[in-house]
Specification:
The complex is a heterodimer of chains A (152) and B (262). By secondary structure, chain A is α/β, with parallel strands linked by helices. The longest helix of chain A has 24 residues. Chain A folds into 2 domains: 34 residues; 100 residues. Chain A has 2 helices and 8 strands, in the order H-E-E-E-E-E-E-E-E-H. In chain A, strand 3 and strand 4 form a beta hairpin. Chain A has an 8-stranded mixed sheet with strand order 7-1-4-3-2-6-5-8, with no helix packed on it. Chain B has 10 helices and no strands. The chains are: A alpha/beta (152), B mainly alpha (262).
Chain lengths: 152, 262
């Protein structure tokens, strides 16, 4: 067995193909945000999650601090229970506000965290007590109409 | 009498088609069964990787580049109406990674490498090289067919990934460099929209399936070709037609399974 130029070409081909896959994963698919170093779980109840989806980002002051891992209906309270994994590096006070916000007018929805002033920090499995649901456009329009009728 | 003979003709065709299907399935299983040699003597597979993979590189790269450029232009024209040019990156990347990359690369692969495989094996059969191998107690399926099969299965996902990557680059060249879409939003919208498992991995699975089907069809058509000049040319045509149809139909089925639109 000796090496031939044919082997070289096949090697180049395989390396290029794998490099393309890596480029797709890193540059196009943004793999880097998926395996965040170490995370802990936090929960929040919302009366309406709107268009929030699993893998939606969790941001505080615009900085990505975690991702939504699951959204389920809590049948005891008939509210949506959202579980998110937060980067271990970031701790939040127990009176932190969790709001569902929209990036831009038609952008995707994410959870915005607004820290409070409490000394105590939320532990793994903790829950945000203060939440604000997604803004549903129909409700907003409905309110606008009823209020304008009242004004007359 | 004319009715009877035409009925007889139809029946004969149906029986023939089913017969051929069974023969093809047995041929496919035999290929898998005798695959040991293509890994033990990997050099055989490397040779075929050169002919089906490396030789398809140019056409895949050039085609990917131009498809991406067209996507960039057309996508921009459409998105401009809704004032959301910044979504151009996600449009280009999603359509390439999910659909166009695997499907177009497989169509090009079928016509570039599949037809060559059929013609080569058909001609080997016509010139009685296959029969000569059997005479020397060399299994032609292990020696000739299986290495080509595995080379096709290995090279197809790599080619599809190269196609998609080239296409994204083409979309970038037209969208960002030529038209002047904001570079930051082009990449960040793309990264926000493309999911590693849902989009990229599913694209890779698609291309592996296409590679399997295209090479299986090409090899069977070659092996089953009547050993005449006419027979080989007919088999080559059938390879391209059947594998193109198979790719498009399978694409629909796979897409329906993968993206049911939760």
């Amino acid at each position: 067995m000796e090496r031939t130029t044919l082997d070289l070409w096949v090697g180049i081909f395989v390396v290029a193909g794998i490099a393309a896959l890596v480029v797709l994963a890193l540059k196009v698919g943004n793999l880097s945000t998926y395996n965040m170093s170490e995370t802990y779980q936090l929960q929040a109840h919302f009366t309406n999650v709107g268009g929030l989806k699993p893998t939606a980002s969790v941001r505080s002051a615009g900085v990505l601090v975690g991702r939504v891992t699951s959204i389920m209906l809590d049948t005891e309270r008939y509210e949506a229970r959202v579980t998110m994994s937060i980067d271990k590096r970031y701790q939040f006070p127990t009176d932190t506000f969790a709001n569902i916000l929209t990036s831009g007018l038609l952008g995707e929805q994410y959870i915005g965290l607004l820290p409070g002033g409490e000394e105590e920090m939320l532990k793994d499995g903790g829950e945000f007590k203060k939440t604000q649901s997604a803004v549903v456009l129909e409700d907003l329009i409905g309110k606008f109409f009823t209020s304008s009728v009242d004004a007359k | 009498m004319a009715i009877v003979s035409s009925l007889r003709g139809i029946g004969k065709r149906v029986v023939n088609a089913v017969w051929r299907l069974g023969y093809g399935a047995r041929f496919f299983l035999m290929t898998l069964f005798y695959s040991g040699m293509s890994f033990r003597r990997f050099r055989l597979t490397v040779r075929e990787l050169f002919f089906s993979g490396v030789m398809s590189l140019i056409i895949i790269l050039v085609a990917g580049m131009f498809v991406g450029m067209v996507l960039g232009l057309q996508g921009y024209e459409t998105l401009k109406r809704y004032g959301s040019e910044s979504a151009l990156g996600s449009l280009v990347a999603l359509s390439l990674v999910r659909e166009l990359g695997p499907v177009l690369a497989a169509l090009l692969f079928a016509s570039r490498a599949g037809s060559a495989m059929t013609a080569e094996i058909g001609l080997m059969k016509a010139t009685e090289q296959i029969a000569a191998m059997e005479l020397m107690a060399v299994n032609p399926i292990a020696r000739v067919v299986a290495p080509r099969f595995w080379a096709g299965v290995i090279s197809m996902p790599l080619l599809a990934a190269l196609f998609s990557a080239m296409g994204v680059f083409g979309g970038y060249v037209v969208g960002v460099v030529n038209i002047g879409v904001d570079e930051g939003s082009f990449w960040s919208q793309m990264q926000a929209a493309v999911d590693l498992r849902d989009d990229i991995l599913n694209g890779v699975i698609k291309s592996v399936v296409f590679g399997l089907v295209v090479t299986a069809i090409a090899l069977f058509e070659g092996y089953d070709a009547p050993p005449t000049a006419e027979g080989v040319s007919g088999a080559t045509t059938r390879t391209v037609v059947q594998s193109s149809l198979a790719i498009l139909m399978l694409d629909f089925i796979l897409t329906a399974l993968m993206f049911r639109g939760e």
